[in-house]
Design brief:
With about 300 residues, the protein is an alpha+beta fold. Helices cover about 50% and strands about 25% of the residues. It has two domains: about 120 residues, no CATH class; about 120 residues, Sandwich (Immunoglobulin-like), CATH 2.60.40. Strands 4, 7, 9, 10 and 11 form a five-stranded antiparallel β-sheet that branches. Strands 2-1-3-8 form a four-stranded antiparallel β-sheet, with no helix packed on it. It has a two-stranded antiparallel ribbon with strand order 5-6. A hairpin with a 5-residue loop joins strand 1 and strand 2.
Length: about 300
Amino acid sequence: MESNSKSNQGRKVVIIVIIAILLAANGILLWQFFTQSEKITTITTEKTTVIKERDELQKQKAELQLQFDSLVAMNAELTGKLKISDDSLAVLQARINSLQFVASQYETMKSQLAKLKTEMNSKMDEMAALQKENEALKTDKNNLTSNLNDEKSKEEQLSKDKDALTNKVAMGSVMRADNFKLNGAKFNKSGKESPVSSAKGTQKIKICFSIEENLIVDKGNKTLYVRVMGPDNTCMTTNSQTFQSGSQSLPFSTSQDINYNNQKVDQCIYFAKGSAYKPGKYYCEVYLDGNMIGKSGSITLK
């Protein structure tokens, strides 16, 4: 009996020890569980923070890149010295590209990004000033172009007015002859002149006309050249003399010097053919200073 009682008591002790050990083990496991859970929560929180920081920095970097691209596009529209240098832009782009996220360097990267933003804003302000200056230059250029066009138009108009005036002066400087009268003439032994209408009775052709008043031409001695045109419509001449009219050398029938004083002059000139006249129509042209100043109507010698 006593032996059995001791045996039961020993079993109880063993069971109590085992239970104590199990309880201790469970306590340790629970402590490890909660400790690990806290670590996981901390790691998860840290990871979430890192991802958030990374996304924030990447977003800011993307915005900075967009701003830089806008700056490059605006700079491309500018010309000459009024633009940001390509080297300066290349350095800025390289610094943007160098921004690579490293969790342990978040604060450093954030600081670098802030500096780049400040530089970018400074560049944008510089660009705004350059654009304003370029616009001012464009306005000045447009105004200058407009003024030059106005001056060119005025110059062209003055040139036209000058040409018109020159033409008027040139036209005004050409003397004019009118009031032509042609007739056949014969002379008796005493030299008395009589008009005739027959070719056979004509000894000379008498050409009378008036030279109009002209206050533009120079005064002085001038030579009139008369071309009497026969029935064959060619100039009748008694020799091979010619005068210059423009680029042509023209034969003439007779000539006469006059002293012109800018006043109207009535003039009569005779042409003696030296041989018999043929029946037909005759007319004449009068030249002075190389210009034809008048042309008569025709007469018919029968």
